[in-house]
Write a structure and sequence with these properties.
427 residues; mainly beta; Jelly Rolls; 3 domains; 9-stranded mixed beta sheet; 5-stranded antiparallel beta sheet; 5 helices; 23 strands; 11% helix; binds heme C
């Protein structure tokens, strides 16, 4: 569509038509904002202004131009020369040019009859109407100042049969203090957080909780992260009798606040063909020396069976500088799967492979993280600190999550072969 329009504009300015076709909001800009911005830029979502109407957008025209020209918005950090990702929201050059031209010619509204039909949003949810909502029964009081330990909240589901989750969305109660939420599930009989009263927050560091971690996470929240909606035929298993466990990371904002977050779930209408599951390459034993501007940390796992990998979610904290995933095939061939050259802690993005592939048994998945603990890193909370693995943002993490899909009847216990090897070096 855009391409065609641009050809026409080129003709028009070449004098074939009476005058140049003006670039207008309704005709040219609104379709782009609708497709690429409204997900976050609308009331109740993470972004600072709405893009639902001309009136909302007009005061932000110059800022929008600056953000799209710099490719700051929409947020996306994958090196375009490595791999293809189905959820890459980046604007085409033609779309950027069109926005620039619109702003430079006074950001005219144009004719409302040129507008695309408005998109329908369910108020308060991005996954459609949830089948069930699990909410913190009592609010958590976040102090005005100081570090807040991770809070763990057990929410019984009351499910009497296995359920397959198609979509899950974690909604913070008060965005100003919720740094992130991870929603796990806990199987019946698990010893994890056994002493916790349902709904009552328990303060404790994350690490590996005694009794072992649960079977895994079903979803999470961090600013600007879209909710998890799985493609048709694919779902996450929520075993009957499970509880949800929320890991809440609150950060004081200078003002005391109360938060009551919730998790909305849409169940699959039919039994799935594939079960979605998460694995990771992770290293928890690094030490980043003070002022080191380029500290490398590696981790790897070897696949114990053929595994279909569908996405990647690199996770580091404020000193995270870059992250890379590689596959080393059984024949020794190495392929880079994702490269994030400029990691940004504020955007915990998932990169979904355009072409989901089966990696054969024996493939090594490697992760390489680079940390910047120098004073040149503007986000660095303290360049003089020796930094280790930990929960708080002034600690670090090195986790390369990767999403896989398996046969719904298969046990996820047999997916990884050897214990991971961890290594690090400073350059
Ligand atoms: C994934 C969510 C998301 C998407 C998609 C997104 N934004 Fe944003 N945007 C944000 C958030 C959150 C902020 C505030 C934090 C920041 O500035 O980094 C922001 C900030 C901005 C700002 C800066 C405001 C300022 O303070 O100067 C502009 C301009 C902007 N977005 C434009 C856009 C445009 C145009 C699009 C679509 C082409 C878009 N955004 C898509 C989440 C998003």
């Amino acid at each position: 569509m855009m391409k065609i329009f641009f050809c026409l504009t080129a003709f028009a300015t070449a004098g074939l038509f009476a005058g140049p076709t003006p670039v207008t909001y309704h005709k040219d800009v609104e379709p782009v904002l609708q497709a690429r911005c409204q997900g976050c830029h609308r009331p109740g979502e993470a972004a600072p202004f709405s893009t639902l109407s001309y009136k909302d957008v007009r005061p932000w025209a110059k800022a929008i131009k600056a953000a799209v020209v710099a490719r700051k918005m929409p947020p996306w950090f994958a090196d375009p020369s490595v791999g293809h990702f189905r959820n890459n929201p980046s604007l085409s050059q033609a779309e950027i040019d069109s926005i620039v031209k619109w702003v430079d010619t006074g950001a005219p509204e144009g004719d409302a009859k040129d507008a695309p039909p408005p998109r329908q949003y369910v108020e308060g949810w991005n996954i459609g109407n949830p089948d069930v909502v699990f909410e913190m029964p009592i609010p958590f009081e976040v102090p005005a100042e100081g570090a807040v330990a991770y809070q763990w909240i057990v929410l019984p589901t009351g499910l009497t049969e296995d359920k397959w989750i198609q979509g899950v969305e974690v909604r913070p109660g008060d965005r100003s203090v919720v740094h992130h939420v991870i929603a796990f599930y806990r199987r019946p009989g698990s010893k994890w957080l056994l002493d916790a009263q349902p709904g009552v927050p328990v303060a404790k560091a994350s690490g590996a909780p005694e009794g072992g971690m649960s079977d895994g996470a079903i979803g999470g929240y961090a600013p600007g992260i879209p909710p998890r909606v799985l493609s048709e035929g694919r779902a996450i298993l929520l075993p009957k009798g499970s509880d949800l466990v929320l890991q809440m990371h609150y950060t004081a904002s200078g003002k005391a606040a109360r938060d009551q977050s919730k998790v909305g779930v849409v169940f699959a209408r039919q039994p799935p063909r594939e079960r979605a599951f998460g694995l990771a390459v992770a290293n928890g034993r690094f030490v980043i020396p003070p002022k080191d501007g380029s500290h490398r940390v590696d981790a790897e796992v070897t696949l114990a069976s053929d595994v279909r990998i569908v996405d990647f979610t690199p996770h580091m904290h404020l000193r995270g500088k870059s992250f890379e995933y590689r596959a080393v095939f059984p024949d020794g061939r190495v392929e880079t799967l994702l490269r994030v050259p400029k990691y940004d802690f504020n955007w915990q993005l998932t990169y979904q492979l355009a072409e989901e592939r089966v990696f054969p048994k024996g493939t090594r998945i490697e992760g390489t993280a680079c940390f910047d603990n120098s004073p040149n890193n503007p986000s660095n909370p303290d360049p003089n600190a020796e930094v280790r693995f930990g929960d708080q943002t002034w600690d670090e993490m090195m986790v390369g999550f990767f999403g896989i899909v398996i046969d719904p009847g298969m046990s996820p216990g047999r997916l990884i072969e050897r214990p991971r090897r961890e290594s690090q070096s400073s350059e």
